[in-house]
Amino acid sequence: VCLACTIYKMIQKKKWKLNPDEADVHGIGFHRRHLYAILQSLLIWLVYSQILCPISIGKLYHWIRGQAMLKLYVLIAIVEVFDRLLCSFGQDAWDSLYWNTTRRPRHPRLFVSIIVVGVYVIIHSLFLFVHVATLSVAVNSADNALLTLLISGNFAEIKSTVFKKYNKQNLFKITTSDICERFKLALFLLLILFLNRFQGEMTSSMVNDYYFMCAIVFGAELVSDWIKHSFITKFNFIKSTAYFDYALVLSGDVTGIGHEGLSLDYTHAAVKRLGLAQIPLVCVTARYLHEAVRFAIAFKGNGDVDHPFAALVDLMADGSKWKFYIGLLKCMGVLVVFKVFLGICIRAVARRNLGGDSRVALKDKGLTSKAPKVKDNKETTETKKKQ
Asked: What is the dihedral of CA 229, 231, 232, 235, to 10 degrees?
């Protein structure tokens, strides 16, 4: 749709509008925020096809599996540290790209922003790619040494965070990072399940064992976070009502309240607040799903069709590509409808948390960012005389 709008504008020979929020009422209009979406799609496709696809998941898996435990411990620590650093850097990089795209699309700094964002997406995708492979080795290995190492890392985090001084703002950052960690862990375990399920020869007992391993890993994450937050609030005398204030802040980010007049994408507010690296996660997810489909087609002849997408795999293996693409589009349509419904539910919950007047609710909690007041010239001169 965005490309069609671009061609339409080129034919009509209209210039881009100075105000990116201005809408074209009389016809289809291409806005600068559409260019931002096109750049995101191009970066996802380039990183997925040119960077991640040439990397063999099997070779990486066996290379990690053959390393010593000490090397794996250092590798896991490096991946986690750089993941957090890149999440913080990536949000600012995307904000800079959006601002340059919407405000000065012909400026040379736009190309600099594109290069910086591209390098960031490549590096972060590679780190997340290694993270998924390490977690796959830990879950699928016969001995539980690496799994024990991963679980002990969660409890080692308690030692590094509990005995420090925090305020409500610092606790909010820890809470948002824990939210992202749980989401990424659930996504990575789901990708590993897809890959193992489509490789064939996975019996029901093996599936149950995998579910048990996933429950152990996710349960250890929940228990360690619960202990960490309990003692942080205890030692720093922070009331539990602070978490309801955090929910109000996130509700304001979801609904767009408190972000009026900003030259940033308001849908990016909640993602920036949480520190979620969505574009690198999309690239890694697409690569592992591609590998799962490849294994499903390769093992189709062995009679192992006991997975949810067996019908689509049969169509692809038999040569009925058009029927396969139609079925794939139906699945995408169902996912889009689910995404829209989920977004409506999240916005409804956010508005219910904020109450009747949303701005008043945020001001009562003191959560709105107020601009500093500028003193008059008379007041400044009087203060100078007093001093």
From this structure: 160
Q: Which residue has the tokens 């520190």?
A: 275
Rounded CA-CA distance 95/111 in Å is 14
Q: How many helices (H) and strands (E) does the chain have?
A: 15, 0
Helix (H, G, I), strand (E, B) or coil at 237: coil
DSSP state of 144: S
Q: What is the DSSP letter of 370?
A: P
pLDDT of 309 reads 55
What is the distance between the alpha carbons of residues 380 and 106, in angstroms, rounded to a whole number?
A: 42
Measured CA distances, 338 to 180, 279, 300, 341 (Å): 21, 20, 29, 5
What gap in Å lies between CA 249 and CA 243, rounded to an integer? 10
Comparing CA positions, the residue from 295, 293, 112 lying closest to residue 201 is: 295
> Each residue of 101-139: pLDDT tens digit?
888 777 788 889 899 999 999 999 999 999 998 888 877
For 195, phi then psi, to 5°, come to -65, -45
d(CA 100, CA 112): 10
Whole-angstrom Cα distance, residue 130 to residue 126?
6
pTM summary value: 0.78
Q: Label residue 23 left, alpha or beta by phi (over 0 means left) and psi (-120 to 50 means alpha).
A: beta
